[in-house]
Amino acid sequence: MSLLTSEDLVAAGYEPGLQFKTLLAKIAEYEERGIADPKYALKLLKRDVAPPPVKHVMREKPVALAEAISASNKEERANVEAVRKQMHQLLKTPIIARGAIMPDACPVGCSAQAVIPVGGAIAVENAIIPSAHSSDICCSMFATFYEERSSLGKELDALMSSTRFGPEHRHLDDLVHDPVLDEDVWQNRFLTGLRDRARTQIADQGDGNHFAFMGEVDVDESMVALLRLTGHGELAACFTLPPEGSRRYRVLVTHHGSRSLGAHVYKRGQIAAEKHVARVTQHIPAAAAWLDASSDTGRDYWHALEYVARWTKANHRAIHRRFLERIGGKAIAEVGNEHNFVWQRGDTYYHGKGATPAWKDEAGRPQLGLIPLNMAEPILLVLGGDREEFLSFAPHGAGRNLSRTALRRQFPDESSRRTAIERGTAGLDVRWFCGKPDLSETPVAYKNAAQVREQIRHFGLAEIVAEIRPLGCIMAGDSGRSWRDREEELTPKQKRQIQHRAERRRMNQELKDDW
Ligand SMILES: Nc1nc2c(ncn2[C@@H]2O[C@H](COP(=O)(O)O)[C@@H](O)[C@H]2O)c(=O)[nH]1
Ligand SMILES: [Mn+2]
């Protein structure tokens, strides 16, 4: 019998494979030297041939989760319980330091392990988890304050022609150029080949709950004073008020992400992350796969993310610029923030999937953010509360308590749906770009706005500076059936078949990619 068996070697951390040949030669050498004690032989072996580094595995227990959310009925309790369960799975990932959930948290509707829920945030040490910023990288808010130029109806007409909603991209005869497309970034492995996608989707907003909201705000001396007091003197100076009075401004607020540019960057990032964890870990769920931020691949991914952020902001600005040109208006002030993203602070990468950054910026100022609630509620302009225990995030909206399918079940027939839509949009000029209204994007689909606001106050997540009251908005609406709806309507067998095909495509893609 051999001094050490292959089972002993595996138990000692050596991996079966080519290295075993070297190990067996060493063991034979020890035997020739008369060594008969297996323990001693193993000690010598570890000295002579170092075993590969220990592979990371998921932790037994999750790290701390801070919950800035409360539930007041059965539905909400079930919602929080599902969110908590998803976060606990994710928080077992070895590189995650802490997690938090916001008042708008809602579970994601898929059964995969360790998927971050909407309204979830995590602090990650020196690594980026693509899945934790989601495929809609840089989904963000952007507001322009301007002086009213025309009736609401006419301004909304102008807005309709300044942007576009729906799947795909702008018509190729009607593209909008922006200098962000001319940046020298297209050699980055995560961006290469994507310029055409970026080019055809400038001034384009996509579908789902992306929107162009038109509202109004009364800016008064106390708001201006608060902005000055918190270091936002530059923004305060944009507003000129009559003596001891307030001035009303119109505000255009857009909400969208990085369209197919971001979706492709995410897909590539996810493949690279899964490859990385396959090398250095065991049994890490795909949704928790990460890139080492200090590796070449990690740095390239980070640079790609930063570009996607610039592209998305340019996209918002292009829509606002085109709108102001059409109405002959001028931007008085601008504010914006991402809510699906990764932010670096020191060596820690803060990931938010539906979370508004609410920490102090480099100048020590609480950051400004925009929190929408639903199309009939004001959009909140807030100053970050910098609550460290909640990773210094605030919510990014009201969030859903019910999935789209569950909502449809509550309004099963055409007439109850129509009534709910009419009630939810009464007094507002709401335009559905693709033609048909979409119940799942009206106020009834979202959590109670007053309760979300109360939780923002209760947990000290942000301070409200101003409320941008709703006048009207444009959304994609129902363009037939979206991929999300289709997915929800599939049978388990169809879902398995699709998953299987996707997996095969992913494997083929992986074989082609040479990261
Ligand atoms: N002001 C409006 N707010 C809306 C509308 N539709 C949705 N929402 C809110 O936005 C957030 C953002 O959701 P996200 O996860 O897609 O980023 C959502 O939670 C709602 O509270 C609208 O038409 N107008
Ligand atoms: Mn969003």
Automatic annotation (TrEMBL):
The keyword Transmembrane helix does not apply. Residues 493-504 have a biased composition (Basic residues). The lineage of its organism: Bacteria, Pseudomonadati, Verrucomicrobiota, Verrucomicrobiia, Verrucomicrobiales. Coiled coil: none annotated. It is an enzyme of class 6 (ligase). Residues 482-492, 505-515 have a biased composition (Basic and acidic residues). Keywords: GTP-binding, Ligase, Manganese, Metal-binding, Nucleotide-binding, RNA repair. Its cofactor is Mn(2+). This is 3'-phosphate/5'-hydroxy nucleic acid ligase. Transmembrane segments: none annotated. It catalyses: a 3'-end 3'-phospho-ribonucleotide-RNA + a 5'-end dephospho-ribonucleoside-RNA + GTP = a ribonucleotidyl-ribonucleotide-RNA + GMP + diphosphate. It holds the Pfam family RtcB. InterPro entries: RtcB, RtcB-like, RtcB-like_sf. Residues 482-515 are annotated as: Disordered. Its EC number is 6.5.1.8.
